[in-house]
Amino acid sequence: MANERSKDKSHEVVEKLGIGFNKLNNKFVNLLEENQKIKQQYKNHEEKIQEILRTNSELNKKNKEFLCTISELNEKHREILRTNSNLIEENKEFSRINSELKSQLHEKDIQFEKLQQHTSNLEKQRNEESQQIQQLEMMKETLEKNLEVLKLDEIDENIIKALKENNKNFSSNFFNKGLEKDTEKPELYSDIRVVVGLDFGVKYSGFAYSYVTDQDICSNDKWHDEVGKLKTNTVLQYDDEYNNVLLWGAPALAEKPNRRTKSQNNKRNNPVELFALYLSSLDEGFKPKLPVDYKKAITDYLGEIGKVIKVTVAMRWPRVDYFKNTLLVITVPAEFSEKSKIIMRTCAYNASLIKEEYSTNLQIITEPEASVMYCMKNRENQVFAQSNTNIMIVDCGDDVVNLTTHNFINNHFGEITNKAKDSCGSSFINAEFIKYLRKRLGDKPMNLLRDNNYGQMQYLIQQFCNNCKIPFTGDDPDFIYELDIERTTPVLLQYITNGKIKNTLEEDDWIIEIDFKTIKSIFDPVIQKILHLIKAQLNNTHETCSAMFLVGSLSESKYLQKRIKEEFNHQVNNISVPAQPIAAVSRGAVIYGLESINSNGTNNLENKDSIIPSRVLKFTYGIGLCLDWKEGVDPPSRKISNGKVFKFSPLVRRGTVVEVDQVFSSSNHRPSLPDQIAMNFKLYRTSEYNAEYCDEPGMELLGELYIDLPDVHLGCDRVVTLGLSFDQTVISVFAIYEVTGKKYIIKLLCSEY
Prior knowledge:
The chain has 753 residues and is α+β, with helices and mostly antiparallel strands. Among the domains are: 33-77; 194-260 and 267-378, ATPase, nucleotide binding domain (Nucleotidyltransferase, domain 5); 615-749, Substrate Binding Domain Of DNAk, Chain A, domain 1 (Sandwich), CATH 2.60.34. Strands 1, 2, 3, 6, 10 and 11 form a 6-stranded mixed β-sheet that branches. Strands 12, 13, 14, 15, 18 and 19 form a 6-stranded mixed β-sheet that branches. Helix 15 (558-568) links the parallel strand 18 (547-551) and strand 19. The longest helix has 149 residues, at 2-150. The radius of gyration is 45 Å and the shape is elongated. The protein starts with a helix and ends with a strand. This is Hsp70 family protein. Keywords: Coiled coil. It comes from Rhizophagus irregularis. InterPro entries: ATPase_NBD (IPR043129).
């Protein structure tokens, strides 16, 4: 029994072991299968890795090839840059050579034209000499006839009659031939169809134009695709080398800000401005420093505005040849010297505003004269109808206010008081506005704005002018100007660092409200200077002023008009502002051109309404002469050692109405000694009508003219004719040595006559 139980247990154990073995075996089999799968996966991964390695190797190879290609391209690019740099240098050299060749060609053209003119003059001289020879032969023939008569022993009435007839025939032929040339009047402006008046100002410029037959004057009001402005800024914006003009006019000065970008790093070259001051008489220290030669700047600006002029003329009158059929009248300040006018004329040629073959189609007049002419054409209530009327022109420009008082006598204008001017123009109100902002925002932000964002600063001033300076009348105490800094000058937001100021502005949404009282305080310092200037001018006139005309940019200010009328309406009956006062100079220049054409004889020889202003002389002009002292006539104290006395001999007296270039002369001046080899004429002027001596109080020595006196063998029979004439700002004094016809001349710059 025990064995059977032992066997049963053993059998049971074996059975359990078998079952366990089977399980282990099954697990082992499963492990082998999984191992097999893992090996297969490993093999697959290994193949993929090999594939990746092969791909990576190929990519590395291609990358090396690509890098080699990039390196080759970089080398080629560097070669191209080197070649391009060489081409640029060669191009600069070519441009320089081309410029020199053009300059040489231009000089050759000028020399050729001068040679042609010289040839023409020689031909003309030959013809004149031929006529003179004919006249001399006629004179010889007449003299021979007269000599034949004189040889007779007896001379009866018939012989005397024949003698007179010979002389009469000679005189008729001689003088008629001599006058033929003088009576022929060339039609100087016969080809002119259009007149353009160009007001080239220090800060602003503009032009007007008219067809000759219509005489309907138009002012240009379209600049840079913007309509409504009668002038644009006299400003240029150049490239980095200052060779080429990128912008001109208002776009070159005022830069409208972009609200999306408030960066401080959008700085561009400072604009080139105020270059016209180099033509003035200002001291060099007051003239701006320019990165280019001022003549280049003037030429470049005239070239740009000239393009607008030519396009305007072509669009209005397509059949008009601009250079041949257009008379251009450029205005300059009254104090410009003859040298400055010559420079202006040269710059106009170089800017292709005029061609040398049509040089007579360019005239230069002064701004005050142009203003006078415009006011005369726009007179109200016939203030000029009286035979003797005093008129004051108040030209309120951008920098300077110019006053001129004129006397209207029998349709002639003459300056009767000293010109007055002061630096109290429109730009000084702008300066007061900036001064106010400095008080509100601080000096540092405004300095940064000026130095880093000059264009935005000018835009800020431009907005002030448009929305405050011109609209302000001084009548509405509720007037407020809202300056939106974020919209107008967003860069200021970064420049304002003062916590208190910044917090206040943020609370006000960056808007500064400038009230009536503050605006008035901005205006009044400038207005007061203008009122003082006018008052002094009226006091200097010593005669009633019948009318006052306000012209210039600031004259559009209703507040200025109001203050002037309040101050002077009890002294001046008619104070008015003509239409488009800002364009008075350019429109007056057109009127001058039209009247020049009329007075030339091409359109109206008998134009009695011509308004080209003459001058009423304020001084008596004459020369000093050394004459014999006369007892009872000359004071003994004036007698000099040789029995002579120096006396004043008038050529033209105060109060005379003088036309431009009208000549006043005196003849029969002779040397006081037979062996004298030179003469010296001294030109004097005095405010007295009757003056006798050159050292009287108020006598002014203007200049001296020396002339040579050859032909000593003629003794005291050497006659000299002396004369003078008045241009716009120049007195020309001349002397003609009648023995040879040689002419001596000096020009004296004179701001008042």
